[in-house]
Amino acid sequence: MDAVTARPDVDVVVVGAGFGGLTMLYRLRERGFSMQGVEAGDGVGGTWFWNRYPGARVDVQSVEYSLSISKEVQDEWTWSELMAPQAELERYVNFVADRLDLRRHIKFNTRVTAMTWDAKSATWLVETEQGDAWRARFVVTAVGCLSAPLEPAIEGIHDFAGVTLYTNRFPKDGFDFTGKRVAIVGTGSSGVQATPVVASQAKHLYVFQRSAAYTMPAGNRPWAPGEFEALRENYDEIRAAQHASPLGAARFGAVAIGAFRTPPPKILETPMEERLARLDREGWLAASAFAWSDVAVDIEANRAAQQLYAEMIRRQVKDPETAASLVPHYPMGCKRPIIDIGYFETFNRDNVTLVDLRKGAIRRVTAEGIETEQGKFGLDVIVYATGFDAMTGSLNRIDIRGLGGRLMREAWLADGPRAYLGLMVAGFPNLFTITGPGSPSVLTNMMMSIEQHVDWVTDAIGHLNEAGLNAIEPTRQAQDAWVDHVNEIASYTLFPKANSWYMGANVPGKTRVFMPYAGGLDVYRVKCDQVAGNGYEGFTLSA
Ligand code: NA7
pLDDT (tens digit, 9 = 90+) per residue, 188-240? Predict the structure, then answer.
């Protein structure tokens, strides 16, 4: 195709058909734009399409982890319990796609491999592994923050003669662990959620733990009679509370997230007897970073809360050695908090063994099982719950070439990802990144963050159209100032103190920088609105 004379095939290409991509397509169609959705999987759902492992469940209440863009969708869908499991979320996302008639805009089984900006025609050429090529005025990536799977760097991983499974690409029809000797490698959210379910089926389950996790009971339950119907009547109120919340979620789950901005007492100013009395009264909540106002910002306070957390584990897990191994060694609240259903109790079962890799690491995987410095484990199935190249992985796996042919992943190599508001990247005009690095994204209820980004992007494209303009790009000064601000906010927290995927620390060679914006979705929303209201401050708009 001749770039100079190239004409766009569509106004917008939207990459990804999870909640972000679907919401974007819906909003663009409302405004009359032509569009093409592209999705690597054979169905909609993104995270909820790929992560079909047993026990997978959302960690926000479903009435809040749901789309507010369509009254029909909101009024017609019934959640079956407080926090929906994966299968229900997958049914919901399919319902959304059908009810809003979005499927016809999406080409499935199609993986975008390259996007190239052509400055002369002010268009992107989007190419796929399957040989498609679309030219578009704008591209919106809705590729997810946790969607580029990480293969663990373990020797011999492909030598295993049994069944190898990955939580983030779990078989659609599930897997029956009955009678099997099973290993779960990894104790992040996926490993923790899968453990009790796999343990209930397997002959024996070995949980291979490199870092212990901070996890708490989800407090999930079915609805009381009439409870959901009453909530559905109240959606306006629920949405308003979500909008006012820094997390995009205002209802209480396992922990009192709604109390985020109402300072609770300081643990260091609370005598030990009162700390323990709170533990007796409130259980896990009293052992969380939400219960004390100094735990997230003061390392001494954090250590005090860790002691309460260790005490809670001792109260749950009968074997003292296992209980001690389950206590995390890094500060509380620096990795994404996990909520579970019966995780610690699972270690009281006779058919479950915790393999604490801090006492002897994995040497290699063999045909028969896993060999560690502590001995060999014969296995029939290995389930890897080893995580993702978070926030940037899915973008960096695409050859995104902006002005001057510069590759985005190279632009981000030295200093980590740099983006203005997490929405756009200097040198990459007309490319919007839904829940991109530098936005609140993974620190919030993703559904609210997605909707906020989608609305902002739709308005920005609409504004360019109405003004007869062709291109929008952030200035380097605005981008630098925003990245400095993101880092400054992170420096007030203990987030940078753990080797987390927030920091890129789980990917060998990845630059360590705290990627999401920790200032709260409510504050961020105001900032984005101000930027747009001031004529897209910090952006260059051109004809
Ligand atoms: P996470 O949270 O990144 O967890 C991955 C886990 O796998 C974590 O415990 C890792 O230990 C462990 N891991 C990774 N590589 C290895 C090797 N080579 N050997 C042993 N253990 C390993 O991913 P999840 O899928 O659980 O959750 C991701 C997010 O999805 C979650 O936060 C929710 O927001 C939803 P490590 O901590 O690196 O020592």
Answer: 999 999 999 999 999 999 999 999 999 999 999 999 999 999 999 999 999 99
Instruction: Dig out the tokens for 112 from the structure.
Output: 């975008």
**Residues 5-27 pLDDT 10s:** 568 899 999 999 999 999 999 99
Alpha helix (H) ranges present in 221-298? 227-233, 235-244, 272-282
- Calculate Rg over the CA atoms of the chain: 24
How many angstroms does the Cα of residue 444 sit away from the middle of ligand 1?
Answer: 19
| Of 463, 524, 450, the residue nearest 23 (C-alpha) | 450
- Express the helix, strand and coil content of the chain in percent, nearest 5 each: 35, 20, 45
In 3D, which of 299, 341, 317 has the Cα closest to residue 82? 341
Q: Strand pairing of 375-378 and 369-372?
A: antiparallel
Q: What's the rounded Cα separation, in Å, for the pair 421 and 407?
A: 20
Q: How far does the centroid of ligand 1 lie from the alpha carbon of residue 308, in Å?
A: 24
Task: Quote the tokens at residue 291.
Answer: 């219960």
**Å from CA of 163 to ligand 1 middle:** 20
pTM: 0.95
Q: How many residues are recorded in the chain? A: 543
Q: Does the Cβ of 192 fall within 6 Å of ligand 1?
A: no
Q: List pLDDT tens digits, range 257-271.
A: 444 446 789 999 999
Q: Are 335 and 502 in contact (CB under 8 A)?
A: yes
End-to-end CA distance of the chain: 23
The model's pLDDT over 57-114, given as tens digits with 9 standing for 90+, comes to 999 999 999 999 999 999 999 999 999 999 999 999 999 999 999 999 999 999 999 9
Torsion (CA) 234, 66, 433, 39 in degrees, nearest 10: -150
The first and second tokens of residue 331, run together, are 């500060």
